[in-house]
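Weekly modeling sync, notes
Attendees: S.R. (lead), two postdocs, one rotation student

Agenda item 3: backlog of single-chain predictions. S.R. asked that every request posted to the team notebook include the full sequence so nobody has to chase files. The rotation student volunteered to paste the first one in as an example of the format we agreed on. Action items at the bottom.

Example entry:
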Amino acid sequence: MPTDHYRLERLSNGQRLITEKLDHLRSVCLGFWIPAGSRDEPASLVGATHFIEHLLFKGSSKYTAEEIAQVFDTLGGELNASTSREYVVVYGRFLDDQLSVAMDVMTDMLLTPTFSDLDREREVVLEEIAMVEDSPQDLIFDVLSEVVLDGHPLAHPIIGTRESISGASEEDIRAYHEARFQFADMVVAAAGNIDHEVLRSMLLDRHPVADGVDPRRAVCTPEPRPRRYFLSKETEQMHVCLGGIGLARDDERRFQLSVLDSLFGGSLSSRLFQEIREKRGLVYSVYSFSSLYAETGLTGLYFGCRPERLDAVMETVVRELVRLGNEPVPEDELQRAKEHLKGHTILGLESTSSRMTRLGKGVLTETEILSSDELAERIEAVTSEEVMELAAEVYRPAALSVVGIGAEQDRFEDAVPEDCLAGLV
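Predicted structure, as returned to the notebook:
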């Protein structure tokens, strides 16, 4: 790894600390990356990781929930967290001279949460589940994951289910937290006007013992079984995803996938947006997406349209899928996709939050941490032939599942017959 733009060290307490000093700033973004996600949960505790993320803010041995909020409000900063399928990150952004206070609050939350108001917060999470179920444009991605990654731990819904959250006892939650939220296993990342030595000293003072368990996940490769699935809901639109197995995050072709995603459905000038929305006015929202995990990935596209337009949208989508894997990308279109991707990536690195995320996620997931110049070089090196070859693999129509949410199942099944993609190459 190049080390001219950050400093990485494994501390004596087992933690990995990575910092990027930006001394022209007055702020710091500090993040704690926990190697636990929805894929690590037993079936009876689906959603436990996300539930714990909520509970961390409900009070610790030294601070009540109100005091945690008041401290960061007083700092003029922000405190937040998110849960994914493979990790949790708790992060704060604040002025550089408030590092000691922020560190004390954040470490106390992580190490000694009281899990107070557990039942009240359970109701909050149940409301969040209900909100997602009422938002088909969000729910459909959980449905697609369950269909494409059927049987794989990555198919677990991050927020859990009504049944799993309702049935999770305080004892279960405490045991899961103790097993998966070991301080020594966390990656600590910071970007901004930060002193590496000072941060190291604070971490070792707070927790000098190397008591982590260094959790390792069993490699589990999904077995794709393309199929059609429909979830009936009273909606005005028909929400549809086509998706299949993508790339693992250490796959050398991930830069090719990024360029492919940009030109296919990741920008205003992309093929899906131009052909389906701009030229035909068939949808408001249409885009492609890719998720890269440890040993596999998920790649696909989403659109929402009125039911009577589903046939026309599906016809256009299928035509674009076939063209994507059979025709070389014109040089001007390829270059436009590269420039969009480079601009989006580099602009994203102009905040301490995004820089902290690049560092912490890179160390936790054991992937390269590249400079802006290196990222641009990798993107620029992608060829038209590589994009077409990869598209023929990850967007091969016969390998894609199709899922839908809406009120008219018959119309969905007519527009998406069981074998509608099987004969396409």
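Discussion: group reviewed the output briefly. The chain has two domains: 7-206, 228-415.
Action items: rotation student to repeat for the remaining queue; S.R. to check formatting next week.
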